[in-house]
Amino acid sequence: MDERQRLDKWLWFARVVKTRSLAARLVAEGYVRLNARRIETPAKSVGPGDVLTIALERQVRILKILAPGTRRGGFSEAKLLFEELTTGAAQRE
């Protein structure tokens, strides 16, 4: 299996957003950084080791990609795709 994947597809598989079109819009509107660089192309290829900074409506999340997704599964499956690097993520409820 290829270790790289489209950014919008990965965001959807990792359950960062509810739909793939929402993931594409988030990227196109400049709310996602890949390895500290602003990305505006939803088709940008990402893979293990890449770090995403995502500005969501109520929070900024920093995620290190661990694996490409194969499908949009449940939360327990999705959390295996990334490591949460967001400071204070554990304290937020």
SSE order, one letter for each helix or strand = EHHEEEEEHE
Largest sheet: 5 strands, antiparallel
Q: Give the neighbour order of strands across the main sheet.
A: 3-2-5-6-7
How many domains comprise the coordinates?
1
| CATH H level, superfamily name | RNA-binding S4 domain
Number of DSSP-assigned strands: 7
**What do the pLDDT scores average to?**
92
Give the CA-based shape: globular
Model description:
The chain has 93 residues and is of the alpha+beta class. The chain has one domain (5-84): RNA-binding S4 domain (Structural Genomics Hypothetical 15.5 Kd Protein In mrcA-pckA Intergenic Region, Chain A, Roll). It has three helices and seven strands, in the order βααβββββαβ. Strands 3-2-5-6-7 form a five-stranded antiparallel sheet. It has a two-stranded antiparallel sheet with strand order 1-4. Strand 2 (32-34) and strand 3 form a beta hairpin. The radius of gyration is 12 Å and the shape is globular. The protein starts with a strand and ends in a 9-residue tail after the last strand. This is RNA-binding S4 domain-containing protein.
What's a concise summary of this model?
With 93 residues, this protein is an alpha+beta fold. 22% of the residues lie in helices and 26% in strands.
Which SSEs are present, and which pair or pack?
Layout: E1 5-6, H1 7-13, H2 20-28, E2 32-34, E3 37-39, E4 45-46, E5 51-55, E6 60-65, H3 75-78, E7 82-84
Antiparallel strand pairs: 1-4, 2-3, 2-5, 5-6, 6-7
Which descriptors would you attach to this protein?
single chain, 93 residues, alpha+beta, Structural Genomics Hypothetical 15.5 Kd Protein In mrcA-pckA Intergenic Region, Chain A, five-stranded antiparallel β-sheet, two-stranded antiparallel sheet, 3 helices, 7 strands, 26% strand
